[in-house]
Design goal:
By secondary structure, this protein is of the alpha/beta class. The chain contains 14 helices and 15 strands. The radius of gyration is 21 Å and the shape is globular. The chain starts with 14 loop residues before the first strand and ends with a helix.
């Protein structure tokens, strides 16, 4: 066994998970389904998707959930993170829920429970109904109320069996890539004018958390994308640029949840958040755990004078990269540094869940065994970083690999593969990769070590 295949030593008690999202894996909806999301709209824009593909059939998981559940159970997962699409459950973003959609996710929950894997749903993984976006989407405060109504429908159907929930996935990416620069749906380009969407998402999370707790939820949180921000040069201008990027990518989302306040935006020339009386008290008391999705650090430098954005994102010097190239450098220690810094800023940090961590690398498109040693090395390095953070006192309780399956990767279509399981998108055939076996062995090894420690 080569060194990168040796299961890393992780502290006892860590829970294990893997994740997917509905729009990326499910494919064909049932005949007559009317739910349309902002991603259905976005992928129809010429050039929006790098390979011109659509999310159908993707993994065709809507018609074959048993196959995915069997793969999750085969890993020995404690929990399986999946998403429930708002646009499918409530096609117009108002009114009663779609019975066929609710029946499907109820069945998925039952399949997971029967397989001994706890369901851990995400209620918003970017699948906003088109009708809600037409009304303003996350730029409008009313969207928080509409989201809470949708969550009520789902919780009334599933809350008797589901106890742990993610409300939102990566609100930072919705704000920055969806509304600020237009790289993701809904494709708006508002730059700093997108910041109000952050507040409305956090408010929606808080409203949804109240709904879920009223229906028996034991743990509610969200998963935000976080990055460790590095200045390119040791200069005052680059440090200032890094601090600003850290604020809009990380702190605008973490501080309201962890402290009940926003950073001082106006002193930096940024627009104020549309906060009303009581909002921050509601948001500040809304999480039972803090979810962190982490993929890579971000290196920034001061932008040229006159630029509409005062920083540029640049390659991280000396770092190897994933299939995305310099956009996604591989620096496992950055995850440790991020976690330790977050704990230092917030000593009373609630339990932390790594809600996503993974990497895409070039792989063959057809079915077959993939010996993905590069993915194993990436995951092993980041798991070791989690262990180091835990040893430093950071209360990490769960680790989640993105993704269980190769899938349709948003604007990158089928050009990027993150899965522990290879998917032939022409036939739907699923073939576990070497990383699947490795992760299964890591989980088994960690459990065995924990059992031995208890027995001493």
């Amino acid at each position: 066994m080569t060194p990168e295949r040796v299961p890393p030593s992780v502290p006892a008690g860590l829970r294990w998970s893997a994740a997917t999202s509905a729009f990326q894996i499910e494919g064909s909806r049932p005949t007559g389904s009317t739910g349309r999301s902002i991603w259905d709209d976005f992928l129809e824009r010429p050039g929006a998707i790098i390979d011109g593909s659509t999310a159908d059939p993707a993994c065709d998981s809507y018609r074959h959930p048993e196959a995915d559940v069997a793969l999750a159970a085969g890993l020995g997962l404690d929990r399986y993170r999946f998403s429930i699409p708002w646009a499918r459950v409530q096609p117009d973003g108002r009114g009663v829920g779609d019975k066929t959609a609710l029946d499907h996710y109820s069945r998925l929950v039952d399949l997971l429970l029967e397989a001994g894997v706890a369901p851990f749903p995400t209620l918003f993984h970017w699948e906003m109904p088109s009708a809600v976006e037409v009304d303003g989407g996350w730029l409008e405060r009313d969207t928080a109320e509409r989201f809470a109504d949708y969550v009520t429908i789902v919780a009334d159907r599933l809350g008797d069996r589901v106890r742990q929930w993610y409300t939102l996935n990566e609100p930072a990416m919705t704000t920055l890539q969806g509304y600020a620069v237009g790289a993701l749906a809904p494709g708006r380009q508002l730059l700093f004018g997108a910041l109000p969407t952050a507040h409305h998402q956090l408010l929606a999370h808080a409203r949804a958390a109240s709904v879920l707790r009223e229906r028996g939820a034991s743990a509610v949180g969200l998963a935000n994308n976080h990055t460790w921000v590095l200045p390119l040069h040791d200069t005052a201008d680059d440090h200032q640029a890094a601090a600003l990027y850290d604020l809009i990518h990380n702190r605008v989302f973490s501080e309201p949840l962890l402290t009940g306040t926003y950073p001082d935006l106006e002193s930096l020339g940024l627009p104020p958040m549309p906060v009303r009386d009581g909002d921050l008290e509601e948001i500040g008391g809304s999480i039972d755990f803090y979810g962190i999705n982490f993929y890579n650090p971000t290196t920034v430098t001061a932008a040229a004078e006159g630029s509409p954005i005062p920083f540029d994102i640049v390659p991280t010097p000396g770092a190897p990269v994933t299939g995305f190239g310099p956009e996604w450098p591989i620096v496992p220690g950055a995850l440790r540094d991020l976690l330790v810094d977050l704990h230092a800023r917030h000593p009373r940090l609630p339990p932390v869940i790594i809600g996503e961590n993974g990497a895409s690398f070039p792989e063959p498109p057809r079915a077959g065994r993939v010996d993905d040693t590069d993915r194993i090395a990436y995951l092993a390095g980041h798991l070791a970083a989690v262990g180091e953070a835990m040893a430093a006192g950071v209360p990490v309780e769960e680790y989640t690999v993105w993704s269980l399956l190769d899938n349709w990767e948003w604007a990158d279509g089928y050009t990027q593969r993150f899965g522990l399981v290879h998917v032939d998108f022409e036939t739907g055939e699923r073939t576990p990769k070497a990383s699947y076996d490795w992760y299964r062995d890591v989980i088994a090894s960690a459990r065995a070590a924990a059992a031995t420690a208890v027995g001493r």
